Amino acid sequence: MSRFRIADQPFDIAPLRARLLHERAGAFAAFEGWVRDHNEGRPVHGLRYEAYVELAEAEGERILGEALEKFGILDACAVHRVGDLAIGDLAVWVGASAAHRDAAFDACRWIIDEVKARVPIWKHERYADGHAGWLHPRQTTPSDAG
Amino acid sequence: MSRFRIADQPFDIAPLRARLLHERAGAFAAFEGWVRDHNEGRPVHGLRYEAYVELAEAEGERILGEALEKFGILDACAVHRVGDLAIGDLAVWVGASAAHRDAAFDACRWIIDEVKARVPIWKHERYADGHAGWLHPRQTTPSDAG
Amino acid sequence: MAKVTLLYFASLRDAAGASSETLETAAPDLSALYGEARSRHGFALPVERLRVAVDGAFARWEDAVRDGAEIAFIPPVSGG
Amino acid sequence: MAKVTLLYFASLRDAAGASSETLETAAPDLSALYGEARSRHGFALPVERLRVAVDGAFARWEDAVRDGAEIAFIPPVSGG
User: Do D79 and A119 touch (CB under 8 A)?
Assistant: First the structure.
């Protein structure tokens, strides 16, 4: 089963968490990115994510494989939404299970950072003032978004 | 509503996550500690957690209040099980929501570390070889457990 | 003499064979009170590895023993 | 001449007014191919800020343009 998926509809997180349960796992870390009501001080009304799905799923899969190798975790998976999202909607979910919490936290953090930096997904924001636009950041920094 | 709770029965995590949803929150980090099938190389059959409930809830509440202050997060909460647990059971849940992911991850990690170091809860492990005993670690290190 | 209730948890409770006991003591402070309990029950843990709480709040070992207090000796914790 | 299909995403698609186009090109490499598309559609983003993919896998700008290839110009990503 693939570890990374692009979802064009809202998805349940319970089965994602359940597939990471493992008798050897003592620790589980998860990250969720939610659509928030502002970005860099501007009120946001909603947004749209679009992906180059074929390449996004291949690159996401590569990131999760690298995380398993790099952090010695037991398993990990991630799902990223595309389409129209409203404030409070779940945009991305990442989970990692490991024997110990160091590895679970570090892997989870690394995966979301890599997904944001490498996976071909683009965010289109609509602002309260009527403006709208694609976000093409110059560089992904740890605090650029959720 | 209190942010820290000792639970003597299995608890649902969905409502815990739901209460951290917030329009200003772009990031959510969660940690779960699960009973794993070994500890320091010894096969574990099951365990029991016991708490000095009154003091544990007060100290846990203090930790979560400190985390809100220290990391500027929007909200956080945690629940720790007591009683008999089997392999795979959820022992502790921590969640934190924030505008950005740095704060959510850092706060979540800090909270579980502080809970393990400060809250009067004790673990009694039963091993496959018939031995059993209370864990009174000399010092809580980041890798001592889940 | 102060009349106090002592709470025991985890390995201390196992060693004492009770989760609490009520007794009269002349111990001048909480550290001395633990010393008495330790020799009576043969606790393995030295005072340096414990914390102490009075009436549900952490206290200091040098605090005086107050009449009517509920005192908990807190062995090293292992939650999480 | 090579016949290729170009895929456009996000701001490139908006500027091109199409999510893909099929055309014949004499561009020697992918970088030159983007240059052609950029002047035709007025793309704001310089090649240095993009990545390129061929047939669903990341490629290098200096790679030759292969007949029949499906080529995607990848603007800076903003998922998460």
Answer: yes
